Amino acid sequence: MAERGSTGDQLHGPRITPTSGEGATAELMRARRGGRLSDLDRLLLHSPPVAEGWNALMGALRSGTTLPADLRELVILRVAVLNDAVFEWTAHEPIGRRSGLTDVQLQLLRLPDPSRGPGWTPVQAAVLAFTDASTRDVAVPDAVFTAVREHLDDRQVVELVTTVAGYAMVSRFLVALEVPPPDGEVAG
């Protein structure tokens, strides 16, 4: 994963100027984020309807699912690696650590095929293989899907698929607009 995105060494801010963060939608986003807006939020606020929908979806994925926190963060961090989204990695690495991911696991996530490496539980390995297939190829092979089904119920499968898709969306937004990484974790 490159330091500042795949489009070169950006030492400047995002490609468009963040908004001032005013209005009802900004307040909804602040509420989810514990009172602060990130640069990502300020960019989304150029389109309040998009920002509102984004806020609702990401809030649900972060705090309204039954997917265990370690699996959620495993997905988010792996998508960040696959899509070269430094902001996403920087914002979620501390959350991943708190959810139980180890230094070794965080290093393995940066490898071409981490699911084959040691250090994963069977469900973590299945989720990693699913994340890679869905992010790289969109279509998920039957064997990869079956491996996930051995560990997750219907609701958790839906939540897994949506988390992979949701954070693919986040990473594409961040990378396309060259949003610089935050100083650390981004709440909410």
From TrEMBL:
<dbReference type="InterPro" id="IPR003779">
    <property type="entry name" value="CMD-like"/>
</dbReference>
<feature type="domain" description="Carboxymuconolactone decarboxylase-like">
    <location>
        <begin position="48"/>
        <end position="110"/>
    </location>
</feature>
<keyword id="KW-0575">Peroxidase</keyword>
<protein>
    <submittedName>
        <fullName>Alkylhydroperoxidase AhpD family core domain-containing protein</fullName>
    </submittedName>
</protein>
<dbReference type="GO" id="GO:0051920">
    <property type="term" value="F:peroxiredoxin activity"/>
</dbReference>
<dbReference type="Pfam" id="PF02627">
    <property type="entry name" value="CMD"/>
</dbReference>
<feature type="region of interest" description="Disordered">
    <location>
        <begin position="1"/>
        <end position="25"/>
    </location>
</feature>
<keyword id="KW-0560">Oxidoreductase</keyword>
<dbReference type="InterPro" id="IPR029032">
    <property type="entry name" value="AhpD-like"/>
</dbReference>
